[in-house]
Amino acid sequence: MIGDIFAWLGSMENSKPLALILFFSTFVGIILYVYTGKRRKQRLESYKDIPFMDDDELDPTRQKKQQVKKDESANGK
Predict the structure, then answer these.
(1) Mean pLDDT taken over the chain
(2) Do residues 52 and 59 lie in contact, with contact meaning Cβ atoms separated by under 8 Å?
(3) Cα–Cα distance between 2 and 26 in angstroms, integer?
(4) Which of 10-14, 31-35, 48-52, 73-77 has the highest mean pLDDT?
């Protein structure tokens, strides 16, 4: 059974249409993600600044760790 499936996928006549369907559905999924949603504009506006951000701004856990260190040093620990 599984051997038949792999043989069917391995055939050049069957793999090209399958790849076309896979890539087209991925393309449609990306288009739907970009152009739908309630907060689409806000999400896309935040993406435009990513190349200009520092590494600290991109990693929220790093900011949290730095804030904890500042709080600990301010408290005298």
Answers:
(1) 78
(2) no
(3) 25
(4) 31-35
